């Protein structure tokens, strides 16, 4: 297919198009992107774990969570400051921290050294989110918000692109290409990690669950793209007791990173209380995952050589 | 559930919350929103047909299409000036007309009197799109782009909210609530039409089709919301020969409006050539639908009394 | 593809294979099977309606139902004598009538003249079911029970093949081919009607519904097979208020026949009380459908010329 | 719900119903069925691997396969003698071995000691299949063939019940109850293993794949039933390169057994050549799985103590 780039700004040359496009496609069987974010390598033998509460409820909560996550060996702190809520009203319990939440994340980073992953939902907030995070997260509902993808790409930072809950692998990769194109224009290798977070399916096994973790997409994606692929079992299963088996399964399936919700008091979490794991449950999972990582030639220990 | 509104700006009173929220919910079995857009009533006995090309390719094409649609009895002209493309590169054939396309739509309106429906993808373009259209369309990929929904709501214009292709009825209605809340703040009844455009499903029957038209959602939505509900069989089926039966079926199922792609030369359309209908096919559909509308106590003739 | 028939018994010749296989495939755009069952034509302008209770609960109930269905213009009496129940225990309310139910169906036929459609679940019961029915129904759970399909085919009677609730159009047609092959061996044209009865899908809109009526499959099937295609909105929607719009939509989409559950006292039906229509609801639907049938050039009146 | 058992033959007492029904339900958090089949324990720390070709093509092929599987540490030999084919015609390559295939399986068992798992499709063949196998397999297309389930249950042998490709967990468990009821009548604990083999889903990632492996069902099923749960990644993925990651993921997710297709010459397999693994690929998988089993406190070595 002859591809003509009509984007404003720098055009791709014919040679670029022939040799490089799609930017997210594997160019050889061993082609695999590895990049470093906040000092942590993604795409290599280390399988970084990104943990934290759904929402940055208070400064104390996020600092306390970061310390517990750090103590158990987690690698990134995640937490939502800007929250896409499906309904425009909030329960009395819920408070969207917005810029305050970003500052609290920065405090938690200072206290623990954990790099920060947090979601950006609007073009007008990219700058402020970028100041307080190491990786910009695009949520499932914005996977095909192309203007947002382009502007996030221009920030030149690592990006986690969550899969749209109804989207095909093809749509997901084509969305990643929007970001990759901006990274390429900045002279960077694409620094994107694809995150499977559950898809709609005929049967999800609980009346409270709306999604199914699609682990088949891990080898399917790795077959065609050089980008690292990760999973988010908390949002997929929406049920804490299934998170541990799906974390272990993701790791064994070859996921390059893992994300989950951890909260000091899950049953009282402001959002999604059924899916969050306690500090003890998180610690138990990390202990359970380490020998599995080792068994498949990977590691959860950032300093180790595999 | 006690609901507290934490939105910036005007707060809802406790009474409002108790009596009005969700704004999109039916308050009685006969509760049905009827509103007028560009002189055409939506939600009443008339079933308006919104037709036009996927993309406003040229001024001539859109004017020619508008005339043919008008001649066959269509009620709205639809066409994309801003186009969400799944991949950041365009084929040589494709040109995104952007503001030029909006002007061409206005020319077509002047020539034919047909009101305009067109998509808005970015907050920064709402003003210019609003100047050139009678109804703002939110596309399937932006159904849960909440900042966009809020800003589009603030424009105080009729909105067509396409269903996300993986979204539940509940998610769709909650997204509509974002727009309805802004309309309510402006002192308007909500002027929103919900558009089913095909969902992901296990079997879509052609390897080229990715979506299935969900007609069960028409009575399901009408059971719980007072908003009008319409369908878009072209995007759902992605195959022109199935558009006519699905138009007729949508009408018979109780859809309050219908949308389809019409192009003077479908096989050479810049986008989605397999799903567009020719002027002759459109005229044939309109002829076939009129007696069905009549049979169910509705009409396709804007001036008629049913 | 060179096809070799290894079936026991009469072999197909090379010529047969080249010209006739698959037997269920359309050989030309106008190729459409029309056959008569119990004096009622299927596949022509008439759209026969097959109505009756889920289960033949008592002789009185089925005779009363048959009279009401006849009075409202229904064409076939349907009712289950042998019932596939998903769980091996029965509520006190439920009684599987088995051979008794078949006899009661015959009484109802004698009283009203309505031909009978009823399900056969086991090879050992084909003979007795065939004695008391005009059309053998294969249920969704047995769509790929190939030994049953073959033996039912050998009975040389009209067959209604319900679509498996997770099955593709391709699987459905290939299952029909098992029956068609036996009809061909008997020197008959295939007398098979394909019945869409709802499929599993990500969103079915009520927590009580498990299925979605797939109307897109009506034109999709008619594009490739000459067999008539019908729908069963009661089982698909599992909710009576949606049955009427889905009956009308099925008719408008081009369905060649329609099936629904009708019960004298739906809320007290032994099985599936939420989906059954009362006699009054059935009569209302028949009245609503007649003008729609007429509008699309078909009819619900067995004696009429369209 | 008061449950009344109307089955012919021995009735359940009121006490049985109150305390035992559903037979497949967990009665306490630690309730887990363990049973022995052909000397191999299922449901305990051992995770038995059932391997072999899709079809028992020849005696040599099945004996050669059994030896290779045994050498690599596989625990059961699987292979189809009776084959449900979706289309009634066979390619010249395909030969359904039927009773001959059963005999060849017995030869392979004599040579290697591997117990046999093979499918039974018809009531009339249960006796002969039972003579030549240690575990009766019910295929996905027969999961709700209730007469077959009942008769297979009466054989009093271990049964593998594959999940219907469109079926919910609830339907699957209710189907298992049919078998469990017969085992209970024989005075046995239920000897049933549930096998997830891929379900229909909106996106399966290859145009050649029709199914998605649902690993979320492993913890979901184990939450509510005491029966062991296993997976079949070959049929689910339909693509050999994804089998290894999905085997490892299944193991890590807590599957109690694993099944896969192994063939001496996969590309020339009579059926499903894209999904079968070679002997070398199988050996590599077994080597990769052993340390993962050990890491999660299980084992692949029948003689070991964990």
TrEMBL record, chains A, B, C, D:
Gene3D superfamilies the record matches: Aldolase class I
Pfam family for this entry, one: DAHP_synth_1
Gene Ontology molecular function: transferase activity
Domain of life: Bacteria
Record InterPro entries: Aldolase_TIM, Class-I_DAHP_synthase, DAHP1/KDSA
Ranges for domain DAHP synthetase I/KDSA: 41-288
Keywords linked to the UniProt accession: Transferase
Record's keyword annotation contains Transferase: yes
Protein name as catalogued: DAHP synthetase I/KDSA domain-containing protein
Lineage, broadest ranks: Bacteria, Pseudomonadati, Pseudomonadota, Alphaproteobacteria, Rhodospirillales
């Amino acid at each position: 297919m002859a591809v003509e780039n009509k984007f404003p700004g720098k055009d791709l040359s014919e040679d670029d198009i022939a040799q490089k496009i799609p930017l997210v496609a594997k160019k050889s069987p061993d082609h695999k992107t590895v990049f470093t974010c906040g000092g942590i390598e993604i795409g290599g033998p280390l399988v970084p774990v990104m943990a934290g509460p759904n929402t940055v409820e208070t400064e104390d909560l996020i600092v306390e969570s970061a310390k517990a996550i750090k103590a158990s060996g987690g690698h990134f702190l995640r937490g939502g400051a800007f929250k896409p809520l499906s309904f425009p009203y909030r329960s009395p319990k819920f408070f969207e921290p917005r810029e305050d939440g970003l500052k609290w994340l920065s405090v938690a980073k200072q206290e623990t050294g954990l790099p920060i992953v947090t979601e950006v939902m609007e073009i007008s907030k990219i700058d402020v989110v970028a100041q307080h995070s190491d990786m910009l997260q695009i949520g499932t509902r914005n996977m095909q918000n192309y203007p947002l993808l382009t502007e996030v790409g221009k920030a030149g930072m690592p990006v986690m692109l969550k899969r749209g809950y109804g989207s095909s692998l093809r749509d997901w990769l084509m969305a990643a290409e929007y970001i990759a194109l901006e990274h390429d224009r900045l002279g960077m290798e694409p620094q994107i990690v694809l995150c499977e977070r559950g898809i709609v399916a005929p049967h999800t096994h609980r009346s409270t669950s709306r999604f199914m973790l699609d682990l088949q997409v891990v080898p399917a994606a790795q077959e065609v793209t050089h980008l690292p692929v990760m999973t988010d079992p908390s949002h997929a299963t929406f049920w804490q007791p299934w998170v541990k088996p799906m974390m272990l399964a993701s790791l064994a399936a070859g996921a390059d990173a893992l994300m989950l919700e951890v909260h000091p008091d899950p049953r009282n979490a402001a959002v999604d209380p059924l899916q969050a794991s306690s500090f003890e449950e998180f610690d138990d999972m990390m202990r359970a995952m380490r020998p599995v990582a080792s068994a498949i030639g990977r590691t959860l220990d950032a300093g180790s050589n595999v």
